[in-house]
Amino acid sequence: MNLKYGFFSILSACLISQGCNDEPDPLKLTTTTVTEITATTARSGGFIVSGIVESCGICWSQDKAPTVDDNLTSDGLVNGVFRSELTDLKPRTLYYIRAYATNGEGTSYGDELTFYTLGQEPAVTTKFPSRITETTAVLTATVNCNYLTTDVYFDYGYDTNYGMTVPAQDSPMAGNEEIKVFAGISGLTELATYHFRVRAVNELGTSCGNDMVFSMDGAQGTVTDIDGNVYDTRVVNTQTWMTVNLRTLNLNDGTPIPNVTDPVQWEETIIPCYGWIDNDTLKKNSGAQYNWYTAETGKICPTGWHVPDKQEWELLGSEDFMEIFHELDLETNWCGFTACQYWWASNLETGGAWITGGFIYINRDPYKLTYGYLYRERKLFIRCIKDEFESAK
């Protein structure tokens, strides 16, 4: 036999034999990082490193080493890559996932990964109501649903047992941002005082907001200062006002306020001080007069009350105004076209040289309240307002 042809015959036989014994590459794959996680969904996938695939996807479980006997997706391949959408997950739960791929030889798995779904019980805060009338009110609050569908309610009644419930507008709701919620209620008892709170429920729990108290428009009451002076109060347009001027001689922490009677000394004083109209103690019932340094302390009003700011003053309408400023009787205290009194406000004008004074300018018709700027050394009355309105701003 020719040696040359014999050599090639043997080589060909070996190559044919080796080709016949080749097997497909085994299935090898990786699992893609989990992304876009919510309370009930997530996204993952995988990459086929080698092997012929008949089906592929992600399998997952709350136990380690999930298999195709657990939850799974069935996905298509594009250049060896597949993407998977995991759905119907439980919120705030730890999951184990693996990519899988199958062919006639069986099923292979990628590396195991873990992730937590999002979600928790709602976060809520009760806010002071708005648009209070004699028999109606709009209850307000903020809610963060923390990714889960949430039912929102307001509980209200004469005390903290509540007894009445109304759903918030647009309930149920979802999302992961703090949103303002509200509900209108009617048929309330005139001049009554009510308690209320917000309550939100999702599948992870129930959250109740802080208890809030409000009185119907026109409701009357009293407040006592640190000196024992008692002042009548009235609810007007969601705000509780004193209906007389302040006349305390001490800050609410017990610090005495100096009495200054000399006009020159008053103009030079840059600490809290007070005086009476015309320095006449017989006029105490009209209220004391203070410089703005007294208002600035934040302690001149009874605890839980404060000197009103510009926004609070401007919520007073003409009828509202006359309800709480009885001394400005249109017959006896009208000076031309303006009322003859001024009150401090809590605003300090930028720069510190001028202040936003609570001076009130009233037109006969139509009613008009105007703000002006006065030196801090001026001598004005103070009318206090209850703190609860701070939550309504």
Shape: elongated
> Strand-residue fraction?
35-45%
Distance N to C terminus: 108 Å
Q: Which spans of ≥5 residues are poorly predicted at pLDDT below 50?
A: 1-21
Structural class: mainly beta
**Which percent range fits the helix content?**
10-25%
Compute the CA-based radius of gyration.
38 Å
Mean of residue pLDDT?
84
Q: What is the number of helical segments per DSSP (H or I, 4+ residues)? A: 5
**Biggest β-sheet description:** 5 strands, antiparallel
What is the quaternary state of this protein? single chain
Counted beta strands: 27
Please sum up the structure shown:
With 393 residues, this protein is mostly beta strands.
Structural summary, described in words:
The termini are far apart. Helices cover 11% and strands 37% of the residues. Strands 10, 11, 13, 14 and 15 form a five-stranded antiparallel β-sheet that branches. A four-stranded antiparallel β-sheet has the order 4-3-6-7, with no helix packed on it. The N terminus is likely disordered. It has five helices and 27 strands. It is elongated. It has 393 residues and is mainly beta.
